[in-house]
Amino acid sequence: MRAIVAGGDGFIGWPLSIAMAHAGFEVLILDNGVRRSLVKEVGSDSLVPILELDDRIRAWRSASPESPAIGFEPLDIASDAAALHQTLGRFAPDVVIHLATMPSAPYSMKNQRTAGFTISNNIQATFNILSAVADCAPDAHIVHIGTMGVYGYNVEHYALPEGYLRARVLAADGAEREISILHPMEPGSLYHLTKAQDQLFFEFYNRQRGLRITDLHQGIVWGMDTDLTRRDEGLATRLDYDSDFGTVLNRFAVQTAIGHPITVYGSGAQKRAFIHLRDSIRCLMLAIENPPGRGDRVRIFNQFTQILSVEEIAGIVASLGKAEMTQMPNPRVEKERNKLTAVNEGLIRLGLQPTLIDRFLVGEIVDVARRHKGRINHEVIKPMSFWQRPPK
Ligand code: USQ
C-alpha cells in the first residue's frame, strides 16, 4: 500500500509516518517545513531537539531497516497545485493523509497577517488535495484531522454526535420526517473556522466526485511520544510549550517542570476533549486500515478519549511539581463554563483502547521538560495572541 502524508514533518505527521512505514506502507511525505518556521517566528522552538526531516528519515532507516524506506518531497501543498497533481499522478497513492494545516487557534487570531495566512493556507491546501485526488488518484482514501472545535464546546441537552445530527423537519404535508445533517458549526477561532469550511469541501467532493473521505474530529492532543519515537532520540517528535503552538496539558507540564505559575485562562471551568498522542496515531491507523466503502458519505469520527476542564488538568499537573495555579485574564473569547458531552464510539468500535490521563504519563512530560529546561524561552510562555486586542 502506498501512502502520501501531507504534513508528515509535524507533531502528529512524523509519528504517523513512521507508524505507517512500520505497518508496511510505502510512505511519501510532502511538507514545506512551515510548522518549524512558524514556531520560530513566534520566538520559540521544540523543547525536545528534533532532527531535520532528511536526518529523521535516515534515523528511522537505521532504527527499522526492515520497514520500507520513507520518501520526502519538499512541497507547499497550498501554493503548488501543479506539483501536487504531478506527484499524486506519479505515486498513485492508496491513501492520502491530510495534515497540511496551520494548527494553532491563537496564531490564527494574532493579527490580520496571521489570520489571512491561516485562511489561505488551510483552505487552499484542502482544496488542492481534494482536486488532485479527484483528478489523479480517485480511488485513494483521504484521511483528515479535523477538530472537536468545529461544533463549539457547549451542548446542553445531548451528546455531540459523530459529525451528523438527526433532525426532525416538518414536511409540506404536515408530517414529521427525520433527516441527517452535518452538525451545526460554531468555530471559536479562525483556525477552527477553516476546519468547519473543510467539512463543506469534503461533502462536496464526496457527493460530486465520489471521493472516500474520513474526517477525524480530534480533541486536544497531549503527550510527546509513541513506542516508535521512543526507539531512538533521532525519532523524537516536536514538543511545543509556547502559548501559540503548545497545547494546554503539555504547556502546563513544562510550566510545572520549571516552577512557572500554571497559566489557567479565565475561570478554568471550560471543558475540552483530550487524547494522548499515542491514541491519536492509533486512531489514524484504525481509520486508514478500515476505509469507508465506495458510495458512503464522508465518515466522521470524534477522536478523543476524555473530557475534562482546564482546571482539572491544571490540578493533575500541579500536583507533580512546585508550580502554583494562577488564574489570568483570558486572552481568548470563549465560554469559561460549558457543558460538554460527546460520542466517541466509532474509533472504540474499531479497536481503540483509550490511554487516560494519569500522573505517571504526565510525569514523563514533566521529567523531559526538566531535562531540557535550558532550552526554554520564558518569554513565550505568557499569552502572545489576543482574540480582542488588549487596551494599549
Ligand atoms: N488554556 C489555558 N491556559 C493555557 C493554554 C490554554 O487555560 O496556557 C485553555 C484555553 O483557553 C482553552 C483550552 O485551554 O480553553 C484549550 O486550549 P489549547 O491551546 O490547548 O487548544 P485549542 O486552542 O483548542 O487547540 C488545540 C489544537 C488544535 C486542535 C484543538 C482541538 O491546537 O489544533 O484542533 O486543540 S479542540 O480544542 O477540541 O478544538
Would you kindly provide a written description of the structure presented here, covering whatever features stand out?
This protein is α/β, with parallel strands linked by helices. The protein is built from twelve helices and 14 strands. The chain has a seven-stranded parallel β-sheet, sandwiched between helices. Helix 8 runs parallel beside helix 10 and helix 8 (248-257) packs across helix 12 (359-371). The termini are far apart. Bound molecules: sulfoquinovose-uridine-C1,5'-diphosphate (USQ). Residues 103-105, 147-149, 218-220, 243, 247-248, 251, 263-265, 270, 272-273, 310, 332, 334 line the site of sulfoquinovose-uridine-C1,5'-diphosphate. Sulfoquinovose-uridine-C1,5'-diphosphate (USQ) is lined by residues 103-105, 147-149, 218-220, 243, 247-248, 251, 263-265, 270, 272-273, 310, 332, 334.
